[in-house]
Known about the structure:
17% of the residues lie in helices and 40% in strands. By secondary structure, it is an alpha+beta fold. It has 2 domains: 108 residues, Rossmann fold, CATH 3.40.50; 133 residues, Tumour Suppressor Smad4. The strands form 3 sheets. It has a 6-stranded antiparallel sheet with strand order 6-5-16-13-8-9, with no helix packed on it. Strand 5 and strand 6 form a beta hairpin.
Amino acid sequence: MTPRIAFLASGVEAAQTALAALTARYGNTQPEAASYVVALGGDGFMLQTLHQTQSLDIPVYGMNCGTIGFLMNTYGENDLLSRLAKAGEEVLNPLVMRAETVGGAVAMGLAINEVSLLRAGPQAAKLRISVDGKVRMEELVCDGALVATPAGSTAYNYSAHGPIVPIGADVLALTAIAAFRPRRWRGALLPKAAVVRFDVLEADKRPVRADADSMSVPDVLSVEIRSEPGIRHRILFDEGHGLEERLLREQFA
């Protein structure tokens, strides 16, 4: 039986052109009835597609029609069915963010790459960091901080001088962004099951926002972050080009 493919595309011209060509060749079905979802775009659209399809428990295969494409495979119209059949699967668990605002509202979000806290005013943020209910740092003065998954460790985390984490490692990266005090503190590696809490000190004077992938929450007072093993994102990579290989290449580039 020929597998049914749901093609989803970003709004950029290259992705829309690819959508038309692939649909004409392979047909197109709704994600709910598909054997595979093929995402056409860049990494941002891949994250959007994973969030959109997380309740369907079907694998997502990305083809790069954007810029970086770390989570994507090379675009090609030929032999797609063969590529899908041979592709290796990685299962990613997202982070859950629970953010409480200065006004008392509570916002929940999911992040496949990272949850970040960023100063939202002219003064540096002041954060207190707790892990599993125990205060580990009374005060971090910084531009922000983030918690990244292994899959997200090559993104914002790496740009902030955080470590690249092997995809099979059951750890999370906690990384400071432009730490002022302690000046040379870069962060920590934490068990995947850890619950990380940031309390924003002097929140009225030093406002902070929290971002979970594309979701942004302004004026946060506290943020709790944990991994969610109950949610599984199934992502496909061409044979020999899986996440483990990509993470290794990044470290030797």
